[in-house]
Amino acid sequence: MGKPKRERALKDTEARAITRMIRVSPRKLNLVAALIRGKKASAALADLTFSEKRIARDVKKTLESAIANAENNHDLDVDALVVAEAFVGKALVMKRWSPRARGRVGRIEKPFSHLTIVVREAGEAA
Question: What pLDDT does 1 receive?
Fold first, then answer.
């Protein structure tokens, strides 16, 4: 006996991908996520390819994963996909210490983030 099957959280025309524990602050990651929100998937991939932000590579991987999930798991049309949601969550923060003058310490925080990208199949109107 297993657990009963859980209802799908997303609609039938949606697919998502989640990347956890990305070594960047949520504030910086949200700048790149805002760059692709609401765009067609192909345009978002092109923007991420030519972005000069270091974290754009990881965001592009997550978007490609969401597109692959839509195609393989949910039989959605890849050409009609739109980035419906791209949101960032805060993960843990590693605390480190750096010696400073006169016996004091400086606190260094190394934050991590979670990224979730939801792609949706747009209708004929889009």
Answer: 76
Whole-structure pTM value: 0.90
Residue 8 inside a domain? The answer is no
32's CB contacts (< 8 A; 6+ apart) are: 48, 51, 53, 55, 56, 59
How far apart CA 79 and CA 87 sit, in angstroms, is 22
Does the residue 34 lie in any domain?
yes
Tell me the CA distances in angstroms from 125 to 77, 80, 100, 119, one per residue in order: 15, 11, 60, 16
Closest CA to 26 of 116, 89, 103: 89
In the chain, the number of structural domains is 1
Inside any domain, residue 43: yes
Within 8 A by CB and 6+ apart from 11, the residues are 120
Structural domain includes residue 1: no
Enclosing domain of residue 116: 14-121
Over residues 26-49, mean pLDDT: 97
Single out the residue of 95, 116, 110, 106 nearest to residue 25, CA to CA.
Answer: 110
